[in-house]
Specification:
Blueprint (H helix, E strand, L loop, with lengths): L11 H9 L12 E9 L20 E6 L10 E5 L4 E4 L6 H8 L3 E12 L2 E12 L1
Antiparallel strand pairs: 1-6, 2-3, 2-5, 3-4, 5-6
Length: 134
């Protein structure tokens, strides 16, 4: 049998899929996965004006985490914001150290709202924090 007859044609769709797995520099891009790190209540909601934003908060909604190392009360503070930039509160101090260290090391962390319950003027909001691992 000749070498030519043992060649198998490649489907162009498969070739495009394989090519899409590579970054612009030709390096293979690994699959990204979301790893759930903690579940917590959003701290400090009673100090925020959330009347306007509360009705639009929905379970499963993406929450942005932003380090605030210059915070006067906690140098490991992590702000929680909506994807529109509205400040909801903070990761509780008792749970923020490992998350802050991961963020400071360049890891991508984000949150998802799990539930919310209005209790008088206080918004009780539960969330999960995830790390996107590449």
């Amino acid at each position: 049998m000749s070498q030519e007859s043992s060649l198998v044609p490649i489907d162009p769709t498969l070739l495009a899929l394989i090519h899409g797995a590579f970054g612009g520099d030709g390096a293979l891009m690994p699959f990204a996965k979301e790893i759930m790190l903690i579940e917590c209540q959003i701290a400090g909601t009673s100090y925020r004006d959330l009347e306007e934003v509360e009705p639009s908060l929905l379970p499963g909604q993406l929450l942005v985490l932003k380090r605030e190392p210059d915070n006067d009360h906690d140098t490991l503070a992590i702000m929680i914001l909506t994807d529109g930039g509205h400040h909801l509160g903070y990761i509780p101090r008792a749970k923020n150290e490992a998350l802050a260290r991961l963020m400071d090391a360049g890891k991508l962390l984000f949150g998802r709202l799990e539930s919310k319950e209005k209790q008088g003027t206080w918004l009780k909001a539960q969330m999960r924090v995830f790390m996107r691992d590449f």
